Structure formats: structure tokens, C-alpha cells
Amino acid sequence: MTFGQRVPATPRVAVVAGTPQLVRAARALGIGTVLVHDRARPAPTVAAEAGAAVAVDLADTDALHAALAPLHAAHPFGRVLSLTESGLLPAAAVAGRLGLPGNSLRTVDLLQDKRRMREVLNARGIGPVRTTAPRDAAGLAAFCSAAGGPVVLKPAAGTASQAVFEVAGPAEAEAVWRAFEAAGGTGPIAEEYLDGPEISVESFSYDGRHTVLAVTDKLTGPAFVETGHTLPSSLPAPVLNEVTALVVAFLDAVGLTEGPAHTEVKVTAKGPRILESHNRIGGDKIRELLRRAYGLDLVALTAGCPFGLLPPPGAPPAARRGAAIRFLTPPPGTVRGIALPDTGGTTAEIRLDVTVGDPVRPVRRSQDRAGYVIADGTDAADAARVCEALASRVRIETSG
Which positions fall inside the ATP-grasp domain (predicted)? Predict the structure, then answer.
């Protein structure tokens, strides 16, 4: 739909495995909602806010289609949407079955399969990266030798930095392979190690045109788990222009046509290289960072743009402020005491995901972090300063 085109009297969406924000944003725009949630779990509280709720096995496309087809026949959906990792593939699959516009199942599947994604990029010469799919530790060792340097082993469909390991050389391949399997890694792929700053790129697509909205500088700790984000990026303009060109070419290559995307990039000596991407808003509160720094509501755009209710971003926005988040990673052990600093005089918020008596595990995935501090400031450096000062004063005492 072209922006400004006449909107149906009551547009309606099916929201698959939906976040509360997406249901609420659609309702605020006058869009009817049907929430589809996993029948294996209790209905989320936001189900009461949707126009209707349906419980389905999200892994069963036939069951999902059977549940939504009669509702679509009675009052047609304009889109099937999702902003959660578990809902992206089911949403694309059933949208295709219903004949609705949106990102194709092929595109979403490419974004969730890092091996196939890399094959597409390498075949087109878009930021080529040496890669292989080792079947065992011996295959991993052979790739290390061929690469002539460190490599990264990760699951083809992994998220939240789970089961991602650096392999320094062939001698470490056996031990890393065992650790990968112990961490639940499946569908292994190995790629040459990409050295340089890591960033993430938030974009929004409309009618096949892509607008880069923001570039975020990323901090990572052991096991490649993010420990912080700051935006706007401090990288120089020529580098950011190169990143933008790469991301737009990448989104064209995978066939993304609409909605948000979160693309992770390494800025190497040979130029930027894609790490992975998702057709959703970035996690780690990046949605909130965008709101604080740019005044952007990506969830509302996701719901409203397909129906012409909101104009799509036509150009990269100018940052109003800076924004930052820092994650809390206390020493492993059992939480024995907590003390929080006063946030008065700042825009900061502190959230803890642990309480006294909870275990704190070594940080091997995003879920192992203990909480965060988020803040904005006059610019990115000011936001980072406020955030880090408060994070340094959070006391989470642990004992083994």
C-alpha cells in the first residue's frame, strides 16, 4: 500500500507470539488485533487487550492456518505480524498461505539460517567472509588451518549469543567442539574471525526501500555476549556511509520488503562485514534507546505503515540526544546482598533480574546477565558516562 492511499474502514492484523507493545500500538492506531499465542504456555496477559486471542501450536503451520483462515474470511487481515524470534517464521508462513503481503517465508528463513545467509552474501560478493559447516572437530580443525588464524564456531540458527565460541587454532578444535555441544549448539558453522569494532544497525523498510535509522556502538564481553550499547555511533561518517551501503545491499539480497530489521556488523580493516540480521527490532532495549535518542517508535511504525496510518521514515533521522545501556555482570555465585544508587537528577532507570538468594552464572549467553542501567544524555558520550557511573555503583554481592 502506498502511503496516503485510502485505508479500509477497520484494518486488522494477526499478531503471532506478539509483544504487548505491538498489540497496544495497533490498538492505539485503530487497528483490530487477533493475538496468536503458543498453546503450550499460559495465555499472556496482553491477550485480554486484543480483540480476540487464539491458542495454537506455533510450530504447526497447518494448525495456525486452520485457526486464522476462518477469521480472515469473516473479516480479512491486512497483515500477519510478529516482532519476536519465535513468531517470525510462523507469521511469514501463514501470511503466505493467506495470500497476504509482507516479508516472504524465504526471506525470513534466510535471516534465521546464518549458513544460507552467508552463502547468499558470498555468492554476490557482498562483504565476503570465509565460512564452512564442519561436521565434527576434525573438520573444525581443518578449517582453522585453512583460515590461518582464529575462527568463530556458532549455531546456524542461534540467538542471544548462545553457544558462540572463538577457536584460536587447530589445537583447540576438539575442546571447543565439546563445549559447543555441551552448550546446546546445533547446526554448526565456522567463520573466519572478524576483528574490529562491532556495531548494530537498525533499519526500517517500506515497499522494498530501506532506511537506516541508527547505528549503535556495541560492547561485548566473554563469549561475545553484549555488555552495553551506545547510540548514535561514534564511528566517522565515511565508515557509517560504507556500513549503510552494505546493509542496504544485504537487505536487497535477502529480499526484505517491509518492517524493522536489526543487523549486526563488524567493521574490519577490509571494510564492514555482516554478522547476522533479523527482521525485527533489536533486543537489549534498543527499542527504548531509539525512543530516547531519536524519538522513534518502531513498534508503532511496524503496525501503522502497512496501512498508510503512519508515514514511513524517508531519510535517516537526526539524533536529539544520546542513549546508552550497560548490563550488570556480577561475579558468579549466589546473591547475598543488593544495593542500588540513587538515580535522582538523571533520566536513568535500573532494572535487576536477580534478587537475594538467586544464582548468578558465568556469562555465556544474554540471559546470564543480572540486569541493566539505561540512560540518555546530551549526546552519546554523556549518556555513556551517566550510565557507566551508575552501573559502577550498583552492588550485587555474591558468594560461592
Answer: 118-307
CA atoms of 42 and 94, how far apart (whole Å): 22
The set of cell numbers assigned to 58 is 506455533
Q: What is the DSSP letter of 221?
A: -
- HSE toward the beta carbon, residue 15, CA cutoff 13 A: 29
**pLDDT attached to residue 163:** 82
C-alpha 248/C-alpha 52 separation (Å) is 37
**Whether the bond into 232 is cis, omega within 30 of 0:** yes
Per DSSP bridges, beta strands 359-360 and 271-278 are unpaired
> Contact at 8 Å (CB) between 130 and 191?
yes
Cα gap 177→53, rounded to integer Å:
43
pLDDT of 79 > 90? The answer is: yes
- Report the alpha-carbon angle 306-312-316, nearest 5: 150
Q: What are phi and psi of 89, to 5 degrees?
A: -65, -50
pTM, 2 dp: 0.92
Distance CA 78, CA 248 (A): 26
Extents of the domains making up the chain:
12-102, 130-192, 195-316, 324-399
Question: What CATH topology corresponds to 195-316?
Answer: D-amino Acid Aminotransferase; Chain A, domain 1 (3.30.470)
User: What is the per-residue pLDDT across 229-264, written as a single tens digit (0 to 9) for each?
Assistant: 999 999 999 999 999 999 999 999 999 999 999 999
Count the Cβ atoms, other than its own, within 10 Å of residue 353: 14
